[in-house]
Design a protein that fits this description.
The protein has two domains: 177 residues, TIM Barrel, CATH 3.20.20.70; 97 residues, Alpha-Beta Plaits (2-Layer Sandwich), CATH 3.30.70. It is an alpha/beta fold. 30% of the residues lie in helices and 14% in strands. The chain has nine helices and 14 strands. α1 runs parallel beside α2 and α4 crosses α6. Strands 1-2-7-8 form a four-stranded parallel beta sheet, covered by helices on one side. It is globular. Bound molecules: flavin mononucleotide (FMN) and iron/sulfur cluster (2 copies). One iron/sulfur cluster (SF4) binds next to α7 and α8.
């Protein structure tokens, strides 16, 4: 079932109910990502009796503008329209939406078919770990042919054998409980970036990123030589340098043990979990405490 009804929850529930009443086939409701809160259509489909939801469909997009004709590409008789963004770029958006539904108490246990950018067995495993019972492949099959699915199955089997996972039940939803809302992340978890000097190729990207847009916590010159090293007293553990470094595993985030001195704050790392909902800087927390 496509997204033709605009995915207004009441319509979704109604259409799903009609479908269920008029077929003996399972009804799988496909959800659009072109919505703020994907849990709402999922809940409506669940209320209408859907057997499962599948997501995501494509994301409304304009991929380019022809700067001679000033029309979106591809151009049809001088005009362009939005197209459906898909493939690897949409995988993070799709995985978040799958996880949102998987961990929503109102749709708990509703089977999910994961779609969006799945190209390798690892992509499939990640969707399944977040709660998808199976996955679908569109762009990768269009780009590489159906044989890619055989490669994904073989890769998944190898990984499951290696890790001792006897069946898909061993992996489906295993990551779901580890997805939380940002305000519940442990504020007393402290990690510092560390650069492996043997792996570093001295490209300087980490320094520029941290210097210009983070916390000026990476050197560029030490004793007149090009040298990239983390200044622990400045590092806030934002992960930016890890993401820009072109050398795999060259920069790692190293957690500080409870009790260890955090040179940035001058205080020992607390062993106690604390989150934003109770943080003194949170005005809502203060209101709650008064
Ligand atoms: C050329 C093309 C045509 C599509 N047609 C449909 C369609 O008719 N109905 C539908 O529900 N989804 C359609 N989709 C969306 C895909 O089924 C899928 O949800 C989306 O592309 C994300 O998966 P992918 O990243 O593996 O492509 C289409 C996608 C592409 C690329
Ligand atoms: S983790 Fe952030 S603050 Fe720390 S060195 Fe890397 S970019 Fe700078
Ligand atoms: S980005 Fe990586 S390789 Fe480049 S200087 Fe920094 S640590 Fe070295």
């Amino acid at each position: 079932m496509g997204a033709a009804v605009g995915q207004v929850p009441e319509y979704i529930e109604m259409v799903v109910r009609w479908c269920k009443q008029n077929t003996r086939m399972p009804v799988i409701t496909k959800l659009t990502p072109n919505i703020t809160d994907v849990r709402k259509p999922a809940r409506a489909a669940h209320a209408g009796g859907t057997d499962a939801v599948s997501l995501i469909n494509t994301i409304n997009s304009i991929t380019g503008v022809d700067l001679d004709s000033f029309a979106p590409q591809p151009t049809i008789d001088g005009k362009g329209s939005h197209g459906g963004y898909c493939g690897p770029a949409v995988k993070p958006i799709a995985m978040n939406m799958v996880a949102e539904i998987a961990r929503d108490p109102e749709t708990h246990g509703l089977p999910i078919s994961g779609i969006g950018g799945i190209t390798t067995w690892r992509d499939a495993a990640e969707f399944m770990a977040l709660g998808a019972g199976n996955v679908q492949v569109c762009t990768a099959a269009m780009t590489y042919g159906f044989k890619i699915v055989q490669e994904m199955i073989a890769g998944l089997e190898n990984w499951m054998d290696e890790k001792g996972h006897a069946s898909l039940d061993d992996i489906v939803g295993r990551a779901t409980p580890n997805v939380t809302d940002w305000q519940y992340l442990n504020l007393n978890y402290v990690a510092k970036a560390r650069i492996d000097q043997d792996a570093c190729i001295k490209c300087g990207r980490c320094h520029i990123a941290c210097e210009d847009t983070s916390h000026q916590a990476i050197t560029s010159m030490v004793d007149g030589k090009r040298h990239f090293e983390v200044i622990e007293a400045e590092c806030v553990g934002c992960n930016l340098c890890v993401n820009v470094c072109p050398v795999e595993n060259c920069i790692t985030m190293e957690p500080l043990a409870a009790g260890a001195m955090d040179q940035r704050t001058g205080k020992p790392v607390s062993p106690i979990y604390a989150n934003w909902t109770t943080h003194p800087n949170n005005p809502m927390a203060k209101v709650a405490a008064e």
